[in-house]
Amino acid sequence: MLGKSKIKYIQSLGQKKFRDEAGLFIAEGPKIVSELLKTCPAQVKQVFAVKEWLTEHEFLTRGVQTETILEQELEKISQLKTPNKVLALVEYAASNELQLKGQLSIGLCGIQDPGNLGTIIRIADWFGVTQVICSEDSADLYNPKVIQSTMGSIARVNVFYTDLANLLSELKDFPVFATVLDGEDVKTVGRQSQGIILIGNESKGIPPEILSIANKRLTISRKGGAESLNAGVATGIILSHLT
Length: 243
Prior knowledge:
CATH class of the largest domain: Alpha Beta
Number of helices: 10
Shape: elongated
Strand order of the largest sheet: 7-6-5-9-8-10
Helix content: 25-40%
CATH superfamily of the largest domain: SPOUT methyltransferase, trefoil knot domain
């Protein structure tokens, strides 16, 4: 049975301040927790789940601290409106070195909606893109809504936060693709082996100081009357043509 102090501690990890202090984030639901246990089991520090789930996934949780809880207890510690069988406390990923050459990366400019960020990480994973570089004003990677939206892809995609303008200004003769309304139709560009694909904030687009550095402008041809595309949808379409 979960004590009050444990419940309060887990609930606190819904806030960035306490996540950063503990170096832990919350992952919930059978799909996401299973993906993390398969891909990075060492990062999964503790699993809280109903008895049925633990029994069914005993082989996945070997070597991981687990605790059987009741549905009512899961409701108390969950960040979801509808809790789903299992919740895990997962350690922040170790910092990796950013490697740009020889691969495509996604650069996100002010993507502040957690759902969009998580979806873009999931899309990147689908197309085999393993690096997402976020501007410092983008949503927090470990926000529970981001984690849920990745559907486990957070375990396979490296996410970095940096000053994009400074990073790009230091690159020489490196492909930087900006997604804009007046660029070259992405269908005509062909497959790319390396480069950074910039995706802007849906309402503000790519900041001028970053856009001025891009050496290639891409657009998704519009046939209807919509003014813009969701950032995640745009990312998927662009990657479907460049990868």
